[in-house]
Amino acid sequence: MFIRQLSYLVALSREKHFGRAAEACHVSQPALSNAIRGIEAELGIAIVNRNHRFEGFTEDGERVLAWARRVLKDCEGLRQEARSPHDNPSGVLRLGIIPASVPIAPRLTQACLHRHPRIRHEIRTIAASEILQRLQRFDIDVGLTYLDDERLGDFDTQPVFTERYVLAAASTAAFDGARCVSWSEVADLPLCLFGTDMQCRRGIDAAFARAGREVVPRLESDSMTSLCAHVHGAGLYSVLPHSVLCLPILAMPLATIPIVPELHRAIGLVMPARQPRGRVLQAALDCFAGVDLQYHVDTLLGEEAGSAACPLLDLGRD
Prior knowledge:
This protein is α/β, with parallel strands linked by helices. Helices cover 40% and strands 21% of the residues. It is elongated and about 75 Å long.
């Protein structure tokens, strides 16, 4: 069994089509099909459900596919080890981040890019519900996601940041000098929020529910940039993690105010619990550990953030 044959299996799982998988592997379709049949003959099991076209993997095939991904990942790590001096790692780091953490990602990658110029970064925005699946399939090397997931027992984690949710408006004039606002008061505003399929939205809805309120936002989006644009341009308000203040693409800064009681969630780096780690991944983790994201973002929000003793805001409805 050759490494190349295992790569054909992984390509087929990704493309779900023999022709496209063959094209991705730069071989003919008969060559790819014959290579997979060779694996089946060597192992004595059926790996692929076939008719006139690809119909998925058998139960045995799914197990073989998991091993193929693992072997290919280890081979990639071996190549990186062989080609990289200890103090100058070279290779690709694939980082999957949840949408709510997009603003803070450059703070992490900047440190690594500066210290290790031979490491390239591939960043993919992925829903929190999919991060662990992508890690298990070795589609990504490390995830930046919430740390309150009960499935994290099989993974290594490295906390980096605690996000706090704030009310965002186009101008501080909307707050009339107040220092914070209650969830009940926020519920009365015209809101744009993350979509209900996003994990952060479920936490926001739970906070409203604890205040005895249920909200129907005027607009929903899976893009933080889109929400910020509607706060600025459409007269809406939003509930966002305070890391939004790190977004450099905002033409004008958002006005933000804490919501009490405080809603906060720990965010960290998640990776498979496997040793040894590749040199590229370990070098990146060491760089990330030296970045004080918490201090930077909390400073942008202001020292008064998170004070539960501040008076509630009277927004004065029409």
